[in-house]
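Subject: DUF4374 domain-containing protein

B.,
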Amino acid sequence: MKTNLIKFALLGIAATSLTFSSCQKDNVVLDPDENVDRWITVSGALMKTTAGDGDGGTKVFSISEPDAINPNYSVKVFDEGTSVKSSRTARLQASADGKYLYNIQYTGDDGGVFNKYIVKGRNRFQADGAEVHTKNYVSDAPRWLVAAPGVGIAVRGTANPVVTTGTSPNFVFKERTTKTDIISLDLNNPRITKTATFDLALSPDEVAAGYYISRIDVPIVNKSGNKAYIGAAISKHNVNSFTINDKGLPEFASDTKSPKAFAKTLVVDYPSFDNPKLITTDKTRANTNGYRSTMQYIGTDGHVYQATSGEAKGTGGSKILRINSATNDYDNSFVFSLDQALGINDSYIETWKYVGDGIGFVIYNIAGEGGYIARVDLNNKTAKKYNIPNEATLNFRQMQNIALVGDNVYIVVTPVSEDGNIYVFNRKSGEMTVGAKLINQPGNRYIGIY
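Prediction pasted inline below.
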């Protein structure tokens, strides 16, 4: 295992005076935005080739809390918003108080570049600190999160070439491991503070059967601040089926018919990233890496609650699992089944938000169809589904964030190409109200709120 402590990794030029859209204060008329205590930032993804693909870039626009809950207020992120630097959909994160927006550009010439912005309101986002280049450590398309206050963690999992024994045409599958790269970012003074790289393998039996880690994502730091948890996706080869490529090497077929691997999480020491260890649970066969959005949170009780996805059809749908704060391992005495709580089959959690006291708000589909919202009570293992327009045809696949401000939970809901609304939920009572209108454009979609 190789780790490097980086004392100073400011690659780029500080641009604290640069703004996307400047606004000069009038000497006579005061700017009403100066009285806004908390900005709520809405993000939208633009179409590139196909409606809803989100690959044409990302725009952001910030509004006040009164505007966010006002159904007579219209947000026009695609007309009035500011473009966030990124070749494709930006990977946005924000500080808990909404004052800062963070982005690591995804692919393209500047893929892997980290940017920090001060949220000044409306379409004003002021660059703050240096650009930080992460590409050499975690590629031009890293997965990352705000893993703790003031700390970002970015990761990359790259499957190594398959190792075989024997000679052509009698190759025998031996193993496939995964090169794992991790960096930590100082979000207060943008720079890389630590890097680590190591190879990661599953258990000997799983390796022999063709299982391997194909992706890692959603890193967070535990409550004690001494461990980081990183979600994982597991893929499988058919070890008895391969073809010979033009280089004379075997290419093993994917195996999608065998049972999925049991859910797993990579645990490393923090902040050193030493002592990598995989923990596993037999409560579900699924992935824990999510897709562009947070899937695990520190609960009020100090334990980590982690949503799963990708369970095979007919195996019980998505779960929420618990990682014990004392053992840093799965607590197999706890499992929350969204299928059981709602009386449905084959749920798939797209993303969710833990909002305190064992309560969460879940965005999910059913067997790959529709888009639904439910409030879950992890303590009592119950759930309440909300009724929202167009839910049978909604697609939340690219949703990046749900916002929590005080007792209000904010979710953006728009069909691709169509207008929608911000929906506001009281985290304690569960009451839902319709907030600001979201004005859309053909092929585009709203993907987050911060």
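The radius of gyration is 22 Å.

T.
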